[in-house]
Amino acid sequence: MDIPALEIQLKTLPNAPGVYQYFDKEGTIIYVGKAKNLKKRVSSYFTKTHDSGKTRVLVKKIANIKHIVVETETDALLLENNLIKKHKPRYNVLLKDDKSYPWICVKNERFPRVFSTRRVFKNGGDYFGPYTSVKTVHTLLDLIRGLFSLRTCNYDLHEEKIQSGKYKVCLEYHLGNCKGACEGLESEKHYNENIKAIKQILKGNFKDSLSKFKEQMMELAENMQFEEAQKIKEKVEVLENYQAKSTIVNPKISNVDVFSVISDESYGYINFLQLSYGSIIRSHTLEIKKKLDETDKELLELAITEIRQRFHSKSKEIYVPFPVDIGEDIKVTVPQLGDKKHILDLSVRNAKYFRMERFKQIKIVDPDRHANRVMAQMKADLRLHEEPRHIECFDNSNIQGTNPVAACVVFKNGKPSKKDYRHFNIKTVEGPDDFASMEEVVYRRYKRLLDEEQPLPQLIIIDGGKGQLSSALKSLDALNLRGKIAIIGIAKRLEELFYPNDPIPLYLDKKSETLKIIQQLRNEAHRFGIEHHRNRRSKSALNTELETINGVGEKTVVELLKHFKSAKRVANAKLDELEDVVGASRAEKIYNYYHSKSLK
Fold it and tell me: Where is the GIY-YIG domain (predicted)?
């Protein structure tokens, strides 16, 4: 059967919730999406002008559309999630789940064992988890074993076998870790009461266990069994200590999932916290690579479905930073203040820390990916037409109008390229005129690059406000480079970024990598310029002192400095060393000048 034309397929789509699939001309599935209204959502791909180049390419490749109608939005979310993981379409964010997580199993048997496992079996018992940290599992198991005496053997403890005396107690019994159920020394009822309490602790509910232990403690104390009461008291303290460490917010907040998202140009990071009785019982951060410039809302909706499936969450309420569409079965809360907002902020902080750690790892393991990400971020933040792979920053330096100099520092791929740094001595400007000095050095720099046919930067940064920026623009106009190189000015006080012909400055997030790189450029230009300025002043001062010696002219000063490298060495030189350079007569005058000074 021939495939109908796309126009016909679009016209016949239903106005119902469902999942759509795009295929290319080879019949390969290239994108899967969900929609409240299939007709409206799919048609929007072909009627809108898309800003993203990736989306435009996707639309060009679509040769066939298939759809699946479902009952509810929740069904659409789950189906979309499963199809993405099954087919791994090229233009979808990929949801990888190649990691097995640990669980705590309460075995389905007489006198149940409690242990950690990575395998889940039907009818294998009650499973709690999965946990994202093995350390959490070990901590919980250590807590449980400290509070309750449980068997660790794998005996089949049927009543008949126990009564027949088939088993004998082992070392665990003699150590006090087990009550000897295998010999009938502990009743099934008492053991199951402990198991019930353990299940409540694993759910995050400590209240019942604490009440029970306190009752036992008081009863033992009343019966003068103080040693046993002390043991129960120690268990109460252990449980209260663990509860205090794990309780983050109001214990009334229970059975809630918390989600937050932060993203950059290439990746989204979604943090998940699960709360039970005010305690965080699970935390996980999912990294998603963007394919079509997905919004934070799209990433969060996709991740919520994936994470809840992965961790078998049955929570009926979620906290999120903004409204999301994830079906009618789940209550969506956007906290504004109080304990709920506190826990949402904690989730955001976890996502940010995860992102920072990933950046640090990538910087070490994959520096190219780090550079690509930073360049893409700078392009977006600074509203540039291309990535600023080559940036140059200019700074003037003069103190009380003396020895005016300028510095140009160069960054390539976000890192200093020190071999390309340049100093400038101001030649055409008299006095402390920062604007004229900036105009001179910018003109000289790019006149030379043009003459030598060297590559030009994608971005110029001027250390200064509107005045210095305007002066630099005059030079770019003179060289016919206006519009060919992006240029901005940075004012020191409030870190304002100025653009040509725009009176309103741009303010970047104080913690953004783009601002940090600009600040690093500005500080490096300042340091480099000050260093050169100091050298010039020092040399000028030394030269002036040598020239004040009667009978010593400019040529003699040059010869001395060329040989001795510094005025200090000239001052400390012996008479015969000076004679070898400038002759006996002038050597004696120089020697007497410095040594007569030291005698005074």
Answer: 15-93
Q: Which two tokens stand for residue 396?
A: 């003037």
Length of the chain: 600
Instruction: Report whether 499 contacts 488 (CB < 8 A).
Output: yes
Phi, psi of 383 (to 5 degrees): 60, 45
Let me know: does 301 contact 325? Beta carbons within 8 Å: yes
C-alpha distances in Å from residue 154, one per residue of 115, 178, 187, 194, 276: 12, 13, 18, 18, 31
Instruction: Look at 47 and 475; give whichever has higher pLDDT.
Output: 475
Q: Give the span between the Cα atoms of 162 and 74, in whole angstroms.
A: 50
Separation of alpha carbons 576 and 584, rounded Å: 8
DSSP assignment of 14-76 equals -SS-EEEEEE-TTS-EEEEEEESSHHHHHHHHHHSPPS-HHHHHHHHH--EEEEEE-SSHHHH
Three-state secondary structure call for residue 276: strand
* Partner residues linked to 489 by β-bridges: 462, 498
Cβ distance 180 to 169 under 8 Å?
Answer: yes
Mean pLDDT, residues 126-140: 72
Place of tokens 């999912």: 286
Q: Could you tell me the pTM of the whole model?
A: 0.48
Cross-strand partners of 283: 273
CB burial class (10 A; 0-12, 13-18, 19+) of residue 519? middle
Rg (CA), the chain: 37
Please classify residue 530 by burial: count the beta carbons closer than 10 Å to its beta carbon, then call 0-12 exposed, 13-18 middle and 19+ buried. middle
Which residues make Cβ contacts (< 8 Å) with residue 351, sequence separation at least 6?
260, 261, 262, 269, 270, 271, 285
What is the C-alpha separation between 467 and 489, in angstroms, rounded? 9
**Nearest-10 Cα torsion for 120, 123, 129, 134:** -50
65: β partners: 22
CA separation, residue 377 to residues 288, 457, 508 (Å):
17, 17, 12
**pLDDT tens digit sequence for 378-433:** 888 888 888 899 999 988 875 444 567 788 899 988 888 888 888 887 777 766 67
For residue range 477-517, list pLDDT tens digits in order: 888 888 888 888 888 766 788 888 777 888 887 778 888 88
Q: What is the DSSP-derived secondary structure letter of residue 152?
A: -
Sheet holding 64-69, edge to edge: 29-35, 18-23, 64-69
Cα three-residue angle 134-139-142, rounded to 5 degrees: 125
Q: What is the pLDDT of residue 47?
A: 79
Query: pLDDT value at position 1?
Result: 41
